[in-house]
Structure formats: structure tokens, C-alpha cells
Write a structure and sequence with these properties.
about 240 residues; DNA-binding; Jelly Rolls; alpha+beta; 2 domains; homodimer; seven-stranded antiparallel β-sheet; 7 helices; globular; about 40% helix; 10 strands; Arc Repressor Mutant, subunit A
Amino acid sequence: MKPSVVTIESTGHFCSDCAVRGSAVCASLDAAELRQFEHLGRRVHFASGETVFSEEDITTSFYNVLEGVMRLYKLLPDGRRQIVGFALPGDFLGMNLSGRHNFSADAIGAVTVCQFAKGPFGRFIEDRPQLLRRINELAIRELSQARDHMVLLGRRSADEKVASFLLGWRERLFMLNAPSDTVSLPMSRQDIADYLGLTIETVSRTFTKLERHGAIEIIQGGVSLLDQARVEALAAA
Amino acid sequence: MKPSVVTIESTGHFCSDCAVRGSAVCASLDAAELRQFEHLGRRVHFASGETVFSEEDITTSFYNVLEGVMRLYKLLPDGRRQIVGFALPGDFLGMNLSGRHNFSADAIGAVTVCQFAKGPFGRFIEDRPQLLRRINELAIRELSQARDHMVLLGRRSADEKVASFLLGWRERLFMLNAPSDTVSLPMSRQDIADYLGLTIETVSRTFTKLERHGAIEIIQGGVSLLDQARVEALAAA
DNA sequence: AAATGCGATTGACCCAGATCAATTTTGGTC
DNA sequence: GACCAAAATTGATCTGGGTCAATCGCATTT
């Protein structure tokens, strides 16, 4: 979907009371640095379905997700799509070598990001190895997740893929805030399919199968984990 | 395979005439720093099939590949294997967050690495942001490769997987040294299968098919690219 | 409350790639 | 150069998940 209305808030927000203060890149900054940092970023809102940046776009900004969920994906020339990850509040996007993004990102539901212009942000990092170290840390974590996902894509069955996805997603939501055995799934079945390397039909059938076996209950906007042990068994660690 | 004979050379080597001087982490160091750096690493040899480190091992060292090829892989409890990458000279291994490796690595053929103890290396980085930046650069490059590989694993057909693999591997060898349309494949068919998320039979059949179509010739220890355009077409970039 | 439209589900059928099972080729080794 | 073991190839068959094609829900609009 193409961008339509983007809202930019210029003022009125402070890093010190930012929701992702503790988990994002900025976690590595002290109070004084944070005040300077504040002037670098601006909050930007995206409506559901809007594209935040596209693969092969020149990188002009870095983004810190504040609210909402984004899908990160790559397309093949013939339209096949692979979702390489979902971004949640606290995730940092935009790192690259070539000066171009190497995946596209769009909003699933309403999204707020903290946007940093590349130049000023780069200069700010320059003499703050702490921040660089933090960014490195995030990159290494993502790398580890990426490798786990390769195992899933290359070597797991459809049942295992869906079960691991549910557990992994639940875990990520848990890390953020809401402890809950009802797992909210803001993304579409097609998104899940493109994340797991399956078709939408297979994802749907697998959900239904899990429900028939009493492992989950499919509810509005998500699922309820009824029998976590069973789902874990299916995920086959 | 378990470690058997590991040869350690304590002296007699200098970073300044190291084969990977220009491409590895050390590329970010100046002559003076290089002399200090020299004392941190030691060259270690591994014989074919030996394991350099295993997943879940406590990280005690970082490694810089100097010579040879390594397979990097993860295993599922039931033995299914996914190769998450191949390491070539210049590659840097061992970065992680948890203090444990998140994949295993073993030698394909004879391998020489430059091994750094975690502590001293960490301290050396401490006040050298240049080096940290270099490591970050390498991590980001790997992340980009990992995402490309997710697309391959999740959304490409067997033919496309094999064709892209051949082109990608040829490209990596090209970057290193030997410009050549004969592509050396030091890894086994099983390794290729576990890298591409296929079975050994499918890899073998696809090679044969490519050969029948005149796109490649299967030779001792590799293949010869006869019709690169055709292979590229199959890879469907 | 009927109409619309899109996401999700379900069913019927198919096929790419897995599995199972022999060979064949290659590389050592005595 | 005969022998053996491991790797690779090839063939026959099977099947998990894809493809094609209807519905089925709902939420939104009129």
C-alpha cells in the first residue's frame, strides 16, 4: 500500500518518558546524552498498511519502533514474498552497509516510530562507543534470531512451523508487556504464511487442526493457548 | 566429528603479511595497532571434519578464518541439520550476546584460524571504536546475507535454490581470489542439501539436470559454469 | 437489513520434492 | 590393483503441502 496520510509531531515528547526507553538503542544513553538525543528524533505515525520504507530505497533515516507492529519483507521479481521478521516496540531499523535498505517495512495496524536522519544520527554515534556497542548488540541478537528462523524455514514441517511461531510470538509479546495466554495476532494469515514459508491455506488448516486437537482456541484477532505443553511438543523444540 | 590433532603455532607469523589482512576485522587497524594485535591472536590448525566450536558451548574465543572453509550449522534435537552459512577466509566468528555460541562450526578440509581469547580481545576493542565499527559492519553484512537466505529457504524452488547457490558461491570465491568459471565445491552434497533445505537426492538430481541442459559440467570437486546466463535465468534473481 | 467485499476456511485434487532402495563412482589402503 | 567404505547418483514410489475453487464470516456501507 502506498503512503497516504503521515502525521509528524514536532514537539511535546521526551525520551525520558518514552515507552521504549529501557529496551531500545537509547537504553545505552545517560540522562545528559538523552537530552541531546531528543532533538535528533521525531515521532512519526503511520496508518495501517502504509509503507515506512522500501527495499532498495536509499537509506535516509533510522527508525526506532515506539508503538505498533511492522512486517519486514523481501519480494522476488515475480511477487513471491518472504517476511523476514516482525518489528515491535523497541526494535531498531535501518542499519545497512550499502546505503540502501535491504528489505521493505510496512505498518500492520497503526504504528509510531521515532525517526532519525542518517547524518545527524551518524555524527551522534561517532564519539559515543556505548551507543555503537548497543547497536552492535541489537544486530547480533537479530543475527541469532535470523539463524533460528533459517532452521525453521529449511528444516521444519508445517505443524512445527506454526507451533513454533505461536510460541515465539507469545514470548515476544510477553517480553514487551502483557503476560497472557491469549496471544494477539495483529498480522493476517497471509503474513503468517509468508513468514513461515507456507501458503495461507496451510496456515489456516494448521490452525484449525490445532484447535480440533484442543491445543488452541481461535479467537477474534488472535488465539488462546489452551494446552501449551501440546503446542510445545508440536514445535519440537 | 570429534577433535583429534590440533596444531597450534605460537610464533613466526605476522599480521602485516597475513592473507586476510585487507578483508578481515583487522582491516580497521593501523600499523602500530596491528603490532599489538599480533600478540592477541594465535594461529590454530584444524583437520578436515574437526569441530572448531559447538552450539551452546561457552564462548571463550573469537575466530578469524585464515585458510579453508567451515560449515556453520544448527541441529534440531532429532538430528535434522540446517547449515546457516559457510565461513571463508576473512570471516569473523564468535560474536554473540548470551556468552554461548549459537551455532556449531566445523572444518571442511584443512582450516587455519586466528584465535583470540575473549577477554583480551574484548579489552583491546574497548578503546578502539574503529574496530568495533568494523565488527558491526561485518555483523550487518551477515544479517543482510541471512535475510537473503531466508528468502531462498522459504520461497524458492529446488532448481532456483541450487542455481542461486552456485552463483552465490562462485561470487564469494571470486571476491577472495580466483576468478574462474570453474567453481570449486569443497563441501559434500549433504552439506549443500542442508544449506538449501533440500535432501541430498534432490541436490544430486538438480546438478544432473543442470548438466544435461548444458548449463554446467560436473567435475572433480566442483562444477564448471558452461552457460552462466542459463544458470542465472534458473536462479530467477 | 440487504448488499458488498475481503479475509479466512474448507474441500478436491495435484505435484515437487521426500523417502526408500539399489547401484555406481570415488578415494583410500593394504 | 584388489578391496573396502563412504559419497554420489539413479530409479521407483509416496506424501506433505501446494493449487484451484467454492463457500463462509464479518465488518462496512447504503
